[in-house]
Amino acid sequence: MPPTETLSPQWINSALSRTSFAWLALGFLLLLSLGAWQYSAHEIARNNEERFQYRAQKQTEVLVGRMHDYERVLRGSAGLFAASETVSRQEWRAYVTQLQLGQSLPGILGTGFAMMLPKSALSAHEAAIRAEGFPDYRVHPAGERELFSSIIYLEPVSGRNLLAFGYDMYAEPVRREAMDRARDSGEPALSGRVQLIQENGRDVQPGFLIYLPVYRNGRPQDSVEQRRLALVGFVYSPFRAFDLMRSIFGTGGGDLEVEVYDDKVQPENLLYASERGARQARHQIDLQPVIAGHRWTVRFRSSAQFEADTGSPLPMMILLGGLAFGGFLFSVLYLNARHRQGMEAAAAELARRRDEYLTLVENVPGTVFRSGLEAPWHVQHISRGIEVLTGEPPARFLSGELSLGGLIVAEDRAEVAAAVAAAIAGRRSYDIAYRINSPAGGVQWVSERGRAWYDEAGKAQWLDGVIVDITEQKSAEEHLRAASLYARSLIEASLDPLLAIGADGTIMDANSASGRVVGVPRETLIGSEFRRYFTAPASAAGFYRQVFELGYVIDYPLAIRQSSGEQIDILFSAIIFRDESGEVAGAVAAGRDVTRLRRAQLELEETNREIRALRQMTDLLQAAPSLEEAYTVIRNSMDTLFPHSAGACFMREDDSEQLRRTVFWGEAQPPSISIDVGDCWALRTARTYAAPAGPSLVPRCPHSGDESTACLCIPLHLHEQSLGVIYLGASAAESSGLHHERRLRLANMAADSISLALANLRLRDSLRAQSLSDPLTGLFNRRFMEETQARELSRLSRISRPMAVAMVDVDRFKDFNDAFGHEAGDLVLQKIAGVMLAFRRGMDVACRYGGEEFVLILPEISVDAARERFEEFRRAIAALALEFEGQALPGITVSIGVAFFPQQGTSSAELIRAADRALYAAKHAGRNRVVLADEAQATPVAGT
After folding, report:
1. What is the pLDDT of residue 235?
2. What are phi and psi of 645, to 5 degrees?
3. Helices 314-363 and 19-82: angle between axes, nearest 10 degrees
4. CA–CA distance from 607 to each of 739, 742, 868 (Å)?
5. CATH code given to domain 606-767
6. Among 875, 876, 835, which residue's Cα sits nearest to residue 854?
7. Same topology for domains 606-767 and 773-935, yes or no?
8. What is the C-alpha to C-alpha distance for residues 2 and 584, in angstroms, rounded to an integer?
9. How far apart are CA 878 and CA 855, in angstroms?
10. Which residues of 692-701 are buried (b: 16+ CB within 10 A; e: fewer)?
11. Superfamily of 773-935 according to CATH
12. Model confidence pTM above 0.90
């Protein structure tokens, strides 16, 4: 609206007809009243606050002025000392009395002088004061200090002040801080809160003091150090805080309540309070004057009298008046608006009822009609929806040119007519779908719902109904039906189980694969309990409960036991689905048959176990020191590798054609202890040979037992050399497992490891035997003799048993070799070795020491028994009949020297030397004899 245009009557009437205008007016007046109330209250509070702060400032100025007056008194007192070299006690009393401080500056407790004393001057000082007529004088409190102070003048000298005479103020930290500050600055210094020494226990008050330094006349005072050196003492005034503050602020009852704190506002710093209890005041301010270099905090609060005097009813009167006027105006406007609204509502109701029928008809989806009762159903009224449906305007139907029956496809007319007639006869509504001819030349589907209208006599007069286009709905139903068939085809095409489960665990739907897995028809599954088909029903119930709790489950393991007895392992995954209202309708579960996977996993675990056992067997066989320990490893390892098979290891002895059973395992022993090489088919063919259980055309080895046992024979060979055979047997129930390709491969790998290990052990034993024996005689060599002798000495020393060591030498063997040749000499040595091998008993050891020398070791034998046996051996050698290349050889003899443990020594070297000396003694004595070491001469004579 332009600014110059006035409000139109129509706009005013519209506004007055609305209750919101009344509320708006009420809100405006309330805001106006609140604003006026707040403004007036604020202005009054601001004026009161300014008045309060002014009063507080004035009181603070009075306090500061009074304290400055006390400072001036002290400056005058210091001037007295500055005007004279000494000030006597009488002069001080006269000076203070003349000031009349009780009348001019009330609140001061006294004015005094404290002298500073070094520790060295303390005794002289006390004596001097006592000499003045104060026999009980002493500086107190007592204690060891480098610097003392003493109050020697204090006026008036009466009452409480008598307690301060001789008091060392410098000994107390708070007073000392103020005294040091005054000394260093040369200015008055106010102390912190203290309890004065004048307090006698009655009416105790906080106190403080003001100090002003007194320096020696004529001494420089330009620096802190100079002032410290020139210090004589302090003039000071003590104050009882309550007495002083009452003289300044009065006794209360005024506009202000006062609290004075030493520095910060804390209970322990309180110097004075005009009221006993703290009150929540309307006004409060903290001022912090600095007096004589020390800060006080003065807290002022408005008193109850001040707040009562400054209160005003004006703001409340403004608020109440505005509220009353706003309420009255609101009532008038609100009642007027309600009256206008009632009148407008009545007029609108009349207009609504006038247009109700038309709006109802036109707003109904589809085509609303009223027609005759008989086909072709000419209309009496029809809505504009017919033009959208057929492309024809309503006028053509109302004129009778077109009818509803003429739209219906000929094939559907009879069905429609029958449905309408049945509904009229039964005094009920009808609902039927049929086809009509489309204006575009095609066919449309419509749904017609209607009912006949009856007069008071119950006679039908016309039909009222509505026709709705459902072509898209029909198309959607067809698509949905096709999609449903497609989805069912996909579900049925799955080779894995797919099920729909209700919240109660009932199977709602399932595909054919589910029936095949469970082993029952699909129709039997639907409607039954999901959990009943599983080996663990409780776990199955937990599966679908978990689905409905969490909304989904992934890879939940369950097992089905089919009627054949086979167990099927399945991993189920499921997710809930909802209906149109969003409520959980059930869960879709998909299963995956993992039976083969589980079996493969178990087989892999078994293979890993076998590989570990095979590796362990190989490691143990390589570490075995002997064939006996190797056979023990083979028995334990093969029992682990083939836990359900009995077996044995047959080994070839040297180059013979016999195999001897060296070790067996399992519950049943193999029937044979030894076998011929030619009897084993594995050794004949040089490859693994398998014979099944039961009658078969495959020939069996003689050592394989009866036909009830399946067996394997695995040859042990290395570098085309046959070492033996491994035999494995299993019962008929286990024979398929024994002949499994994996088991065959494991058996061959085990045989290869065993072949290699046993061949290495045999080679090691052969090499060891060659390294410890003499190739010519077959006796142990010198190295073996030394090892054996050391071992036997250790053993015999532990059990305290004797041992005999004999050195044997062939007499005149060099001459024999020269006469008959070395080959004949070798024959002699071999014959002697044969006698020595026959001579051995028990743990006796025979060795070739070198050349024609031999050593015999006889453990645990006495001296007499040893002599007898060695004599027997000597005679056996002398009795040998020797022949070489058809020629008889002369007889030979031996000389023997014998030493004994522990008589001739405790070490191998000592015994050999002793036996050697005895041997030389035997040679020297004529040969062909036995000489004991203790019978030998000290120095043997060489001879052969």
Report:
1. 96
2. -130, 135
3. 150
4. 15, 8, 67
5. 3.30.450.40
6. 835
7. no
8. 63
9. 18
10. bbeeeeeebb
11. Reverse transcriptase/Diguanylate cyclase domain (3.30.70.270)
12. no
Helix (H, G, I), strand (E, B) or coil at 849: strand
Sheet containing 674-676: order of strands: 674-676, 658-665, 646-652, 721-730, 710-718, 689-691
The span from the CA of 681 to the CA of 684, in Å, is 5
Give the C-alpha separation, 814 to 800, whole Å: 41
Beta strands in 241-378 (DSSP E): 256-262, 270-273, 284-287, 290-291, 294-302, 367-371
| Burial degree of 51 (CB within 10 A; 0-12, 13-18, 19+) | middle
Residue 480 tokens read as 């949905």
* Alpha carbon distance 572, 591 (integer Å): 4
Residue ranges in 83-219 assigned as alpha helix (H): 89-99, 101-104, 122-131, 173-185
- pLDDT at residue 380 in the model: 84
**Burial of 24: CB neighbours in 10 Å, binned 0-12, 13-18, 19+:** middle
The rounded distance, in Å, linking the Cα atoms of 837 and 839 is: 5
**Tokens (6 digits) for 156:** 């008036």
| Residues contacting 908, CB < 8 A, separation 6+ | 786, 789, 790, 793
User: From the first residue on, what is the mean pLDDT of each consecutive set of 10 residues in the chain (944 residues)?
Assistant: 55 76 83 85 86 91 92 92 87 89 81 94 92 91 92 86 90 95 95 89 90 94 93 95 87 79 92 82 92 94 83 79 79 78 73 61 74 85 82 85 84 88 88 83 84 86 86 79 76 81 87 81 85 85 85 86 76 86 86 76 72 79 76 81 81 76 74 75 80 74 73 78 80 50 78 76 62 74 81 87 93 88 88 88 87 90 92 91 86 93 90 92 92 72 41
Residues sharing a CB contact under 8 Å with residue 17, sequence separation 6 or more, in sequence order: 337, 340, 341, 344
d(CA 591, CA 500): 12
Is there a contact between 507 and 530 (Cβ–Cβ < 8 Å)?
A: yes
Tokens (6 digits) for 85: 């070299």
> Do you know the residue count of the chain?
944
Strand pairing class (853-859; 443-454): unpaired
Q: Is 673 left (phi over 0), alpha (psi -120 to 50) or beta?
A: alpha
Q: How far apart are CA 324 and CA 44, in angstroms?
A: 23
Q: What is the DSSP string of 547-610?
A: HHHHSEEEEEEEEEE-TTS-EEEEEEEEEEEE-TTS-EEEEEEEEEE-HHHHHHHHHHHHHHHH
| Distance set, CA 751 to CA 452, 608, 637, 647, 748 (Å) | 101, 18, 12, 12, 5
Which CATH superfamily hosts domain 368-475? PAS domain (3.30.450.20)
CA distances from 94 to 86, 109, 155 (A): 14, 17, 10
Report the distance separating Cα 452 and Cα 429, nearest Å: 7
Alpha-carbon gap, residue 133 to 90, rounded angstroms:
13
The Cα–Cα gap between 528 and 609 comes to: 43
Residue 113 burial class via C-beta count within 10 angstroms: exposed 0-12, middle 13-18, buried 19 and up? buried
Question: Which residues in 384-522 belong to E strands, given as ranges?
Answer: 430-437, 443-454, 460-469, 498-501, 507-510
Q: Enter the tokens of residue 17.
A: 């007809």
Tokens 């070094």 sit on residue: 118
- CATH number assigned to the domain with residue range 494-593, chosen from the 4 options 3.40.50.300, 3.40.190.10, 3.90.1750.10, 3.30.450.20: 3.30.450.20
Instruction: Identify any residues that bridge with 432 across adjacent strands, giving them in sequence order.
Output: 448
Longest dimension (CA), the chain: 174
Neighbours of 800 (CB within 10 A): 7
DSSP class of residue 506? B
Per-domain boundaries in the chain = 368-475, 494-593, 606-767, 773-935
Distance separating alpha carbons of residues 56 and 43, to the nearest angstrom: 20
